[in-house]
Design brief:
mainly alpha, two-stranded antiparallel sheet, 14 helices, globular
Length: 385
């Protein structure tokens, strides 16, 4: 009887090296994908940082376009008998109004910054005494150390740098106006381009719904935030004006602007207004009273009115907002902090409609329910791809 030349198990043992080689190949392919992903992320971050001025202007222009697009559509649908306003005419009027408003606002900001900077030089010595007085209760040695530390700060250099940054506002305004104009022109053919790009009318309609959902949420957030910030800034202005402080207008504008930064903006505004009061009064008791009053205003408006007006419009995670604030602040600086919430809203809504990215949308949402208002009541969202 012939014997089997291959002992038992030899076939399995021969297959093991091949399986191990295939496993190593799969691991190497996965590692390659991870490395390519890291390289791509680095390239994207580099582009975001290097093109920050252009990209920030573009994002602001998109937001302004979003705020006025629905209003233009409503105006174009109005009819007075046989007469109606053409969409192109409504768009031209909107661009003119946006341009005028931006140029006026930029002129006011630049003028206020120049006034504050020119006056601040006269308060340099008084600022040293006022800031050092805050630490008087800790002893003379600590107070003297604080004075020495303050004198090492180059206030003139910081003021000149701030003046240079204020000059960039006008350049950014012109660029934003150009972007807004081109966006209104492109809107005339956007629907046709989207249908031709996707090749599917149903998919194009779904993408339009997603874009519309982003625009509605961001518009509601910005409108409510503007109302709340305007009220807070007006109350701070009245407070500083009533107490006879200089820079009352600057304090109100500063509070209005910084309140757009989520979570930390109101804190920074309160501290800065308190420092302005301390520098002028040179009395800790007066600064403490201003601090308490401004904190009460911020709490009453931000924690009572803001949630009532905002409702469930954003549904964003508080921790996610902090992460978005930190990331965009690191990438784009202070303008990135202002834009962090609108960008986060757009990312969450897009991720909620893509099955592969839906876990990210769940993490970013406040209650794990990232669906928009048009989908929340009608079952899970359809995929956009």
């Amino acid at each position: 009887m012939a014997r089997d030349v291959n002992p038992p198990g030899t076939g399995h043992e021969a297959a093991r090296p091949a399986a191990a080689a295939a496993g190593r190949h799969g691991d190497g392919h996965q590692l390659q994908n991870w490395l390519l992903g890291v390289i791509a992320l680095g390239i994207v971050l580099t582009m975001l940082v290097q093109a920050r001025f252009l990209l920030i202007s573009l994002v602001v222009a998109i937001i302004l376009f979003s705020l006025t697009a629905d209003a233009i559509h409503a105006i174009a649908r109005l009819r007075l008998g046989p007469l109606h306003i053409p969409r192109w005419l409504a768009s031209v009027v909107a661009v003119v109004l946006i341009s005028s408003g931006l140029m006026t606002l930029s002129a006011i900001v630049v003028s206020e910054v120049n006034t504050v900077l020119s006056t601040a030089l006269a308060y340099t010595a008084q600022a040293e005494a006022g800031l050092a007085e805050l630490f008087g209760w800790m002893g003379e040695d600590v107070q003297a150390a604080v004075v020495a530390a303050i004198r090492t700060i180059d206030f003139g250099g910081y003021l000149r740098a701030a003046a240079g940054q204020a000059g960039n506002i006008l350049s950014a305004t012109v660029l934003i106006i150009l972007f807004v104009g081109f966006l209104f022109v492109e809107r005339l053919w956007f629907d046709t381009k989207l249908r031709n790009l996707t090749g599917d009318a149903e998919r194009a309609e779904r993408i339009e719904e997603i874009i519309g959902s982003i625009m509605r949420r961001v518009n509601r957030y910005l409108l409510v935030k503007t109302l709340v910030s305007l009220l807070t800034g007006a109350l701070v202005y009245l407070l500083m004006r009533g107490l006879g402080f200089q820079f009352a207008e600057a304090s109100g504008i500063l509070t209005f602007v910084l309140n757009y930064i989520p979570n930390v903006g109101s804190i920074v505004a309160t501290i800065l207004v308190t420092l302005i009061a301390q520098v002028q009064a040179v009395e800790p008791a007066t600064a403490a009273a201003v601090f308490v009053a401004v904190t009460a205003v911020q709490f009453a408006v931000g924690n009572v009115m803001d949630p009532i007006l905002m409702g469930r419009a954003l549904r964003l995670s508080s921790f996610g907002i902090l992460l978005s604030l930190a990331f965009w602040g690191a990438v784009w600086g202070v303008p990135g902090m202002f834009l962090s919430v609108p960008i986060m809203v757009a990312i969450m809504i897009v991720c909620s409609h893509v099955p592969m990215l839906r876990p990210m949308a769940v993490i970013l949402s406040r209650e794990g329910l990232p669906e928009d208002e048009g989908v929340a009541g009608g079952g899970p969202p359809a995929a956009a791809g």
